[in-house]
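Lab notebook, bench 4. We co-purified these components, and the gel suggests they stay together. Before we commit to crystallization screens, I want a quick structural picture of the whole thing.
Request: model the full complex, all chains together.
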Amino acid sequence: MDSCPECARKLAEARGRIALLSLAAPEQNPPTVVKQRLLEKVRAEKSSTIAPARVRETRPPARWWNTIWAPAALALAFATVFLWISDRGLDQQLQQIRQTTQTYQEQTQHAQALVNVLAAQDTVTVKLDATPAMPKAWGYVKYNPRMGMMCYTADLPEPPPDKVYQMWAVPVTGNPVSAGVFMPAAAHNGQMPVAKVPTGMDCKWFCVTVEPKGGKSAPTGPKVLVGTL
Amino acid sequence: MSRAQRAEQQNDSDWSLLERVVQKDESALAALYDRYSGLVFAEATRILRDSGAAEEVLQDLFYQVWRTAEKFDPARGSLPGWLLVAARNRSISRLRRRSSRDDDELTENSVVLPCSLETTAAQNQLLGRVKTILSGMPDGQREAIELAYFEGMTHSEIAEHLATPLGTVKTRIRSAVEILKQALA
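Here is the predicted assembly.
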């Protein structure tokens, strides 16, 4: 019939004429309940098909990865806090390591300077003698005028409160040059103070005085040890 | 629904109502039902001789219109023609306990009616014409064509039922169809 539209039309018309025979059936009207049942069925179908469509319109279907956003965000927040705390701890450790390293570097430089002074052939040793102020005290100085370095040690009692000992290098001409303040405990612990003084200074004497904490730019206190080069 | 709306729907063409049914307008389906349910129910009841079964055929048929209205092509036929043919086929299948392929009927069975049935007046007019045509037929001829249409009998079954030669039955039916064609032209 698809290949012959005219045939299809004639067949449809023949069907129509035959179908009109149904009008010969005794007239009958269906009970109203049939229409009610039909419309109820139609409404039920509408509500079951339209409701999900509304849901789809207003709310797109959830993607599977949506379910992991919240936990992932929470985990990220925890990780951020953890890393921040960890970073602070690492910063503190790094600071401590830097301080320790600086201390080691200072000790190394001090030891190197001490070795250099002690090992140099032109280093001279000056014995420090006690004065009447502290008759039992003693000490000595290792001095290298070429290097402008000196180191020293002294056996002294504890200084009075708020006082320290201060080493001086005294040239033939000019003012005494401070070679640093020290406490006897350092000497007792085997530590040997190292000081830098002007290179080529024509140094003649060394002395130790008692000075206020922090030291002075020129000797003011009593001499407790004196040595002559 | 107001009286004005009901009157307006009564004036709507089958095609405009079907378009609204496609848009899932149940009032349009109700209007089509009001327009054609009497014809369909009378036919199904005549074939099945069981008003309960006829109600089921009627309801199923209009529910199929609701579900598959978009398949209906007005260029290939009229809705009442399709309803009458589908109601007959389903009723006879039910009568003979045969299965029917409901979903395909809308597209497969094109039916063109020689006149409109969209108004009650047109239906009444055509109903009168058909009854007049049939009443004008000889008893044997009318009986043969009614057995073929309403009982779904084959020519051989009609011949056996009427104790009439097969050739006579074929001639009577062919002649009845020709009378219908001439009368409704």
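The first strand of chain A starts at residue 124 and ends at 130. Worth comparing against the SEC data before the next meeting. The domain at 124-228 of chain A is CATH 2.60.40 (Immunoglobulin-like).
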